[in-house]
Amino acid sequence: QVQLVESGGGLVQAGGSLRLSCRASGLTFSTYAMGWFRQAPGKEREFVAGISWGRLNSRYADSVKGRFTISRDSAKNTVYLQMNTLKPEDTAVYYCAAGMSGFSNVVLTTTTEYAYWGQGTQVTVSS
Known about the structure:
The protein is mainly β and 127 residues long. The protein is 0% helix and 50% strand.
């Protein structure tokens, strides 16, 4: 079955960096769009970053643009989220997701477009 396993979360001071990883199995990774979402306590799950399965287009939430970078390595079936200049408001559980798109250059940005989800990894940024 499909599994997405996130790692790399933790506690970091404001201004610091973390790199999240998500390893996928049970699917043809190179044909899935991948994304990162986050959910803070009492809030809805929100889109953070996404990357297409071909042409490697990417999109970001305005709140993380210029600070976060999404990338993927098909040889390792892994998608990454490099997070720099972290802020306390970035504190949340971060989820990796995989979704199918018929277009290689399309980035999926809504929760309903993603079919598979990881279990989440906690990121806490202290002030």
